[in-house]
Design goal:
single chain, mainly alpha, two-stranded antiparallel sheet, 4 helices, 2 strands, about 5% strand
Amino acid sequence: MSLADDILSRAQALLGSVPESRLPALSQLCDAAHASYLTRLGGSVPDDAAEAFTSAAAVSAAASFLELNTALTGGTVRVGDVSVSSPRDGVADGLRDLADALLAPWLSGNGFHFRGVSS
């Protein structure tokens, strides 16, 4: 199984059932999370970070998928006269914090970068 397939598989497991029509979007979000964390790690994944890397990318992609799904559906699913609302306030942010925590030992700077210094 390729790394991309492993990340996608883990993201699907986190999300539960993902409609077939949404799998391409989830796959793209997994690729984006993979690329983002790879960049933050300096272009390569340390051998001892491989498991954490895969999990962090999957959790991050799942967070993005939840945000996308909520934006597309308005957070409400309607079947006939019944509607179910799914509050997601803070869930995606919490998942991203978890993803960063998984890779914290290998990430430097916690995403903070100086852009310049003025006097």
